[in-house]
Amino acid sequence: MKLIVAADKKWGIGKNGGLLANLPTDMAYFKEHTSGKVVIMGRKTLESLPGKKGLPGRTNYVLTSNKNYEAENCTVLNSEEELWEALKKHDSDDVFLIGGAAIYNNYYRFCDKLYVTKIDADLGADTFIKNFDEDKDYEIISESEAVTENGLIFRFTEYKKK
Ligand SMILES: NC(=O)c1ccc[n+]([C@@H]2O[C@H](COP(=O)([O-])OP(=O)(O)OC[C@H]3O[C@@H](n4cnc5c(N)ncnc54)[C@H](OP(=O)(O)O)[C@@H]3O)[C@@H](O)[C@H]2O)c1
User: Fold this and answer.
1) Nearest atom (ligand 1) to Cα of 77
2) Which atom of ligand 1 is nearest to the CA of 20?
3) Please, what CATH class does the domain formed by 2-161 belong to?
4) Is the CB of 42 inside a 6 Å radius of any atom of ligand 1?
5) What predicted TM-score, i.e. pTM, was given to this entire model?
6) Domain coordinates of the chain in residue numbers?
7) CB of residue 100 inside a 6 A radius of ligand 1
8) How does pLDDT run along the chain (162 residues), one tens digit per residue?
């Protein structure tokens, strides 16, 4: 399993239920990595997407405790047990955690690769993930050149489980 996220220098990932920044190059990077794959998200992240629908061109799973929850283009999972059961159907290399913090923080340990877009700014987030640089089980294996967009500098960083 893999994880893909954009985080600011404090490991903030969201504010007021939405993303911290509009970075089209990062969106393209996200799409390139997840197209044709399986994505796992929390209910709040799903509800932040356009039309509150699953992402096109991907197999979408949404976690919620609400047993009556329905969302277009999504399979609803009501527990961690249901998540592991559903994932038996897929090659784990094809599965991406796509947020939000509840999902990343609880399940990142199951990922062997982390794709982190590191934004070099403090964007005043209210939602944070674990600082992967402080997790001794992960190491950086590549970092792109800096990209500048909409006044922000960011780098595509890949971590691998040791
Ligand atoms: N920067 C990025 O790359 C990125 C990516 C994605 C999201 N985000 C941001 O992250 C923020 C949302 O993160 P969040 O942590 O508040 O919410 P979230 O992780 O998107 O969703 C949390 C919800 O998921 C459900 N859930 C989680 N674990 C579950 C489990 N084991 N069993 C059943 N349901 C489970 C619960 O839904 P119920 O309450 O319905 O039970 C929970 O309230 C937003 O600001 C969003 O824009 C950022």
Assistant:
1) 33
2) 1
3) alpha beta
4) yes
5) 0.98
6) 2-161
7) yes
8) 999 999 999 999 999 999 999 999 999 999 999 999 999 999 999 999 999 999 999 999 999 999 999 999 999 999 999 999 999 999 999 999 999 999 999 999 999 999 999 999 999 999 999 999 999 999 999 999 999 999 999 999 999 999
Rounded to the nearest whole angstrom, what is the distance from the C-alpha of residue 97 to the centroid of ligand 1?
11
CB 58 within 8 A of CB 36: yes
